[in-house]
Each structure stands twice: as C-alpha cells, then as structure tokens.
UniProtKB/TrEMBL annotation:
Localization of this protein: Nucleus, Nucleolus
Encoding gene (name): Utp15
SUPFAM superfamilies attached to this UniProt entry: WD40 repeat-like
WD repeats mapped onto the chain: 118-159, 244-285
CDD domains named in the record: WD40 (cd00200)
All residue ranges annotated as the U3 small nucleolar RNA-associated protein 15 C-terminal domain in the record: 343-490
Name of the protein this chain belongs to: U3 small nucleolar RNA-associated protein 15 homolog
Purpose of the protein: Ribosome biogenesis factor. Involved in nucleolar processing of pre-18S ribosomal RNA. Required for optimal pre-ribosomal RNA transcription by RNA polymerase I. Part of the small subunit (SSU) processome, first precursor of the small eukaryotic ribosomal subunit. During the assembly of the SSU processome in the nucleolus, many ribosome biogenesis factors, an RNA chaperone and ribosomal proteins associate with the nascent pre-rRNA and work in concert to generate RNA folding, modifications, rearrangements and cleavage as well as targeted degradation of pre-ribosomal RNA by the RNA exosome.
UniProt superkingdom: Eukaryota
PROSITE patterns in the cross-refs: WD_REPEATS_1 (PS00678), WD_REPEATS_2 (PS50082), WD_REPEATS_REGION (PS50294)
Length: 515
C-alpha cells in the first residue's frame, strides 16, 4: 500500500511590502515598554539636555522619567485639579505647566515646590511654553485669551483676546524671542509678536486646531486639526503648501525628528504616521492599541514615547548600533562544515543505513487520510486558517474535487455552516489565484442548496452578496477589456510602418524605368 502524500499547497507570489531605508530605520526600535499612568496622557516633553529625561503630564500629576526608567524619578503633584502641557525650558532647568483651575506654575527641576505661580486666566490653561529668550512664558486658555508672562516679576506683560474659542495648542519661535503661535478650536492659527498689540498673521485651518509646530528655520508652520495636517509658508504670508489627509480620525499631536527631515503625527485612529519633509509622503507608520493623545521623540531620536487615552505610556527605544556590529562580527561556521559528507559515495563494502524522515501530518491531512471529507473541510474553515492562510483552504477544496468527494463534503450543512462557506467564497472568489476552484465550489453550493432558498434570511443574504460580488467582477472585467482594446489601438498606431529613404528611392527608380 502506497504511503499517504500530504496536500500540496501551491506557493503563489505575493506583492510584499516595499522595503526602504525608512522602513529599516523605523523598524530598528525595540519592543515597547508600557507604563500605566493615572489618567489620559495629554503632554510628553523631552528635556533638551542630556540625559534627556522626559516629563509626562497626566491627571493631576507631572512625572519625570529617565530615558530607561519604568518608574518616575520625580513627581510634581501640587495641583488641585488636572495639570496640562508640562514643558521644559531650553536649558532643561525649569518646567512650566498649566492647570484646570487657570493658574500657571513654574518648577525648578532641582526642587519640588513651585518657584512661581501666574494667575490671570479665568478658565483652564491648556497651553504653556517658554519663549526663546528664556525669561518669558506664553499661555493660552479656555477663556479664549493668550498671554505673555515675565518670569522674574511674575506679572502678565501683555494679553491677547483674538480667538473666539478654546486655545488648545501653541509653540514659540526658536529664532525670534518675541514670536509665538497659538491654535484654537475657532479653526484659526494666529502668529503673535510681543512687540505689537495684536496678532501679525492669521491662518485659517478649516477645523478645530489640536496641535501646531514651527520648523527650526521658522519658515514653515504645521497645523493639525480634524483629519488634516497642513503645512504653511510663514514667509509668504501663510500660504498653504500642502494638505495631508492620511489619518481616519482627528489628528491630535505633531513632532519633528532631530534633523527636521521627518514629521510625525499621532491620531485618534491609533496610528502614528511618519512623513518625509521633502516630498510629504508617508514613509512609515506605527500602529498602537488605543487612541493617541500625545507624542514625543527624544533629541537624539533614540526614544519614541506615545501617550494614549487609556493612560498607557508606550516607550520604544532604538536598538544600539554596537550590538548589531557585534552580531555581524560573530564568527560563523566554515562552509565546509555544512557540506561535509554531502557528496560521499558509499563503497561496495559499506553497509548503508537509511534513516526515514518522520512526516508530521496536519489535522486536515489526517482527516483526508482517513477519508473524512466533511471534517477535513471543517478543519480548514477554522478562523486561523481561512483568514490568514486561505490558500490552504482552497488547496483542500481542490483535493476534495479531484477525489470526487467535494459535493458530499459540502452537503448536509446547517444554516451557520452554509453562511460561513458562502462568506469565504464571496470574499475570495475575486482573487485570480483562487477563482478557478471557488467558481466550482460556488456552483456546487448553489446546486445543493437551491431547494432551501427562501427558508433562511441569513443564507439568502449571503447568496445575494455572492451574486453582487460576481456581478462587480464581471463589470470590472468588461471595463478592462475595453481598456485593453484602446491600448491595442494605440500600440497599433505607434508601430505603424514608416517608409524609409531607401524604399522611396527604389520606388522612384521603378517609376522612371516604367516611364
């Protein structure tokens, strides 16, 4: 009796993901470390100076984490209600944060008690930051106002009330110590100069603005709101350069890498998109478990920290280059180790012992071996096979058809099983690699269960979906045939024979001879 041969699953080439330098670079981060905070993480900010600690604002606390620590190394908790937008100064020595009660607190990183408290806003302050001169603070609140504060005297120097809705984001120019920018839920982004009494530029974003970012050069401004990320040329009076719509839900945060060549955006759709700042195309994407509220990249691009709505802090560290070099330098066995004895031919006096290889059969092969066709089909319709390796399901169907037992395997099924079969066929019948087999399966299912049509609303619905899928595919094929005909006509026009100079002379000579 011949031994059983397992079902051969044909290998079909797939269009794989295009591997680029960006793909390799951004994949070079370790498995993330997850830290649970007390509430939604509304702001993450890295210290600009080594060792690049980062401040996490969540609930009524500000936690300071070391780059590789999973526990906070310092906590600021002098808030009666929620804290917002804890931001470092450029020298990393001071930290400023807003609060739900409307006050702004300034902390020294070497202490715990606030150095200064600035009171003036009547509602929650969601935006605070330092101007580049290091001695003034800008703020924006839910009272629609934006203010400037002097640190040494703890007084408000100027206040602007030009927004008509909550001010929820802002940033300061790195080059000019008097310029800062705010974004509001009134759909506008305003540029302020501390030397003037009103804004110097207003940009209409079109959606409630969740985040703004100024390039280090000061010439380009990025705003995020709704599903859009928009880039504006400030030097041309706020001219729109590009509008990006790569997210499915509201974009909540923006970030630049250290070189300014990559722009990162986080969204409520659980994705972080990475754009090239030259072409503004997505070069990579990260997927997270829940909606993203905040995002930060360390000054040396070694750490990506993402804060989410469920209070989880996701920290990814870049794999060190030294370990890669060491692994590459690791001595590998010589080539002769692998080929040793491969070409040895047994001599006449040698006693040859063959070691039979053990063939481990899969569940569906065991069932096919014992001629249990229906159970074999059930085995390949399990979720982990039909969803992730549909080629195995189709290969078993093809084998059952070759044996002539496919009809009996399909027959005698209940409403739920018929619906499952029809769902699989409807989804995969339009794939060219599966079409020949699944068309046969669809025909058999229709023949077997035609008498019971109308008895189950669920099965009837699946039959209608199958009909619609096949109808759409036929329409696509007809359109493609029309396009193919057009292309044939174009190619025929392009390859039309042209008369050469030599042929013209020959024809002229023949005419002269006849004359």
């Amino acid at each position: 009796m011949a031994s059983y041969k397992p079902v051969v699953v044909p290998a079909v080439p797939r269009l794989g993901e295009k591997i680029t330098q960006d793909t390799l670079y951004w994949r070079g981060y370790k498995t993330p470390v997850q830290i649970k905070e007390f509430g939604a993480v509304n702001k993450i900010d890295f210290s600009p100076v080594s060792p690049y600690n980062y401040a996490v604002t969540a609930s009524s606390r500000i936690h300071i984490y070391g780059r590789y620590s999973q526990e906070p190394i310092k906590t600021f908790s002098r808030f009666r209600d929620a804290a917002y937008c804890a931001t470092y100064r450029d020298d990393g020595k001071l930290l400023v944060a807003g609060s739900e009660e409307g006050s702004i607190r300034l902390f020294d990183m070497s202490g715990r008690a606030p150095l200064r408290q600035f009171d003036g806003h009547t509602k929650a302050v969601h935006v605070v930051g330092f101007l580049s001169d290091k001695y003034r603070i800008f703020s924006g609140g839910d009272d629609y106002s934006s203010s400037l504060w002097d640190i040494p005297t703890a007084t408000e120097t100027v206040s602007y009330s030009e927004h008509s809705d909550y001010v929820r984001c802002g940033c300061a120019s790195k080059l000019n110590g008097d310029v800062f920018i705010t974004g509001s839920y009134d759909h506008t982004v305003k540029v302020f100069d501390a030397r003037t009494k009103s804004s110097v530029m207003t940009i209409e974003h079109g959606h409630p603005v969740e985040s703004v970012l100024l390039f280090p050069s000061g010439g380009l401004l990025v705003s995020a709101g709704g599903r859009y990320v928009k880039v504006w040329d400030v030097l041309k009076g706020g001219q729109l350069l590009v509008s990006l719509k790569n997210h499915h839900k509201t974009v909540t945060c923006l970030c630049l890498n250290s070189s300014g060549q990559r722009l990162l955006s986080g969204s409520l759709d659980r994705h972080v998109k990475i754009y090239s700042t030259t072409s503004y195309k997505v070069v990579h994407s990260f997927n997270y478990a829940t909606s993203i509220l905040s995002l930060a990249l360390s000054p040396e691009d070694e750490t990506i920290v993402v804060g989410m709505t469920n209070g989880v802090l996701n920290v990814k560290h870049r794999k060190p280059e030294e370990s890669k070099e060491k692994s590459q330098k690791k001595r590998q066995p010589a080539y002769r180790t692998y080929v040793k004895g491969r070409n040895y031919m047994p001599k006449q006096e040698d006693f040859y012992v063959s070691k039979p290889g053990k063939c481990v059969l899969r569940k569906y092969d065991k069932l096919l071996k014992s001629f249990q066709s229906s159970k074999a089909l059930d085995a390949v319709l399990e979720p982990h096979i039909r969803l992730y390796t549909p080629e195995v399901t189709v290969a078993v169907m093809q084998e059952l058809n070759r044996r002539g037992t496919l009809r009996s395997a399909l027959a005698g099924r209940d409403e739920k099983q018929i619906s499952l079969l029809l769902t699989f066929v409807t989804r995969r019948v339009i794939e060219p690699r599966f079409t020949p087999v699944l068309v046969t399966v669809a025909d058999m299912i229709t023949d077997i269960y035609q008498p019971v049509v109308g008895q189950s609303a669920l099965v009837d619905k699946q039959f209608l979906r199958l009909q619609e899928a096949i109808g759409r595919e036929i329409d696509y094929q007809e359109e493609l045939l029309e396009v193919l005909g057009m292309m044939d006509a174009l190619f025929a026009t392009l390859t039309k024979k042209t008369t050469t100079y030599l042929e013209e002379n020959k024809s002229n000579g023949l005419e002269k001879t006849l004359d």
